[in-house]
Amino acid sequence: MAKVSIIVPIYNVEQYLVECMESIVHQTLKDIEIICVNDGSTDNSLKIVQDYAQKDNRIVIIDKQNEGYGKGMNDGLDKATGEYVGIVEPDDYVDLHMYEDLYKIAHENDLDVIKADFYRFVYKNGTLIATYNQLSKDGTGYNQIVNPKEHPQVFRYILNTWSGIYKREMLEKYHIRHNTTPGASFQDNGFWFQTFAWAERMYFVNRPYYMNRRDNPNSSVNSKSKVYCMNEEYQFIHEFLDRNPQLKEYFIYEYSLKRVRNYFWNYGRIAKEFRLEYLYQLSKEFKEAMNLKEMREEDFTKLEWQKITRIIENPKAAYKWMNTSARIRKTKNFIKRRIRNVKKILHI
Fold first, then answer.
1. Is residue 193 part of a domain?
2. 0.85 cut: is pTM over it?
């Protein structure tokens, strides 16, 4: 049994795949299994991983018809044999010490989940620009064993599935898998939530190992026409909580907070012509959550709660108000930047 199975979900990423694979095959932890799931790529991606597999017997290739991210990830999880499981997106890459360092801590402390900080990066005019991201914004909660039932604030950390590893025994015991809605996006949300809800021994490392690309035009983050994928994913999570009331009593408010914040993020991501229609859907969902007493004002910022109540009362009026507020904030930020630039020039 390998110490870590690393799943790489692949679909038309020939431009980035070599950099990704190089960072995995040269990990300082040699006892790894690399599961490449080719989800019906029409470019050179399959050939690239086949060439790697000819030279490295740790690589397993699943070549399948295109069925979407969630199904491909689940096929990889079903194939995995490692003690722990990691995920690397094919347009990203990782520090060469990532899996050795994380596995050592996880194995020694019998962890269910271990996560680390990461970088987000883009290339501008050929120059790498990387931004450090702390999972815990206030810097607390690191380098200690945490039970989410006792510390539900971990659900407020940055959401991703790829900056850590998961004990496979836990994934199998609770059958933790991705949502498989065809053509959907953001299916990492459901997997992430399940791992946090079921884990009893978690650990967060305040060191970045993972490089997350933000300039791939084919990324779901940049697909402005996928309007309701986020909502479908949070319906999937809600159904999971309904099936597990012993978890729902602990985490329903954290679920609602994460859902609302991701809905607001999604509102800014989608094309402008869909935004009013989207607010009508949010109004419906927020009303239902209020009726079920699944949202508390105390969990949200003042501005967030103001948005929620306005959207519930009148989506069309909320749309106009949110557009006006956004323009005002944009103008204020522009003025602040100009003032900072002038101060730099004048050495003030």
1. yes
2. yes
